[in-house]
C-alpha cells in the first residue's frame, strides 16, 4: 500500500490491513516486513488482542486441517518421494495435461500435428533461446526443477524418428548477442523448423513488468530469419 500512497509507513499499513480483515502477508525473504509491526500497533492500542486472535485463528485452523501439526506417521504425503512423483502414471498424466493445454493460433497448411510416421528421413531444426535451456521454461512461483526430468523442446524432438539439428541463435532470453548465420544455417537445411521464443523470469516476473509485449532483443529478427 506504500506504493499506492495509501499509507506512509509499515506500521500504518499493518494497522490498516488488520482492521480490513487481512491476516496473511506474502513477504518471503523480507527481514523487516509489514506484519512485524503488529506488536507495536497492539501496544499503541490501534488494534486489540481479540482482533489479533480473530485474525490468527483461521490461519492455524487451516494448517491443522492440512495436517501440518500431525506426526509424520499420520500424514500419508510425508512418505512420498520422487519414485512416486516421477512414476510412469504421474508422468503420463503430466504429458496428457501438456498435450491438451496447447493453444494453436493459426495452423497454416495443416502443418500440425507432426506425425511420427511422416518424419523418417525428414530434417527438423529447433532454434531459439528457449529451444534447449531448461531454466527458462519455468515462470514465477514454479517449483525447484529437477534437470534430469526436464524435457526441453530439443530434447523432446530428438526422440522423434527425424534428423534433428539445433541452433540457439542467442543464449539467453534478452537475446542481445544474436548469431544470424547459426539460425539461417540450421533453418535453411531443414524440412521443418520449430522456433522457440519467449521471455522467462530474466525478462519479466511479478513486480518486474515490461511496457509492451514485443519479443525482447533480437528474438523477432531471429523469427523472421527462420521464416525466410
UniProtKB/TrEMBL annotation:
GO biological process: arabinan catabolic process; xylan catabolic process
UniProt cross-references to InterPro entries, sorted A to Z: BXL, GH, Glyco_hydro_3_C, Glyco_hydro_3_C_sf, Glyco_hydro_3_N_sf
UniProt keyword terms in alphabetical order: Glycosidase, Hydrolase
Molecular function terms from GO: alpha-L-arabinofuranosidase activity; xylan 1,4-beta-xylosidase activity
Organism this protein belongs to: Sula dactylatra (Masked booby)
Record carries keyword Hydrolase: yes
UniProt name for this protein: XYL2 arabinofuranosidase
Keyword field contains Hydrolase: yes
Glycoside hydrolase family 3 C-terminal domain ranges (all copies): 103-226
Superkingdom of origin: Eukaryota
Pfam families: Glyco_hydro_3_C
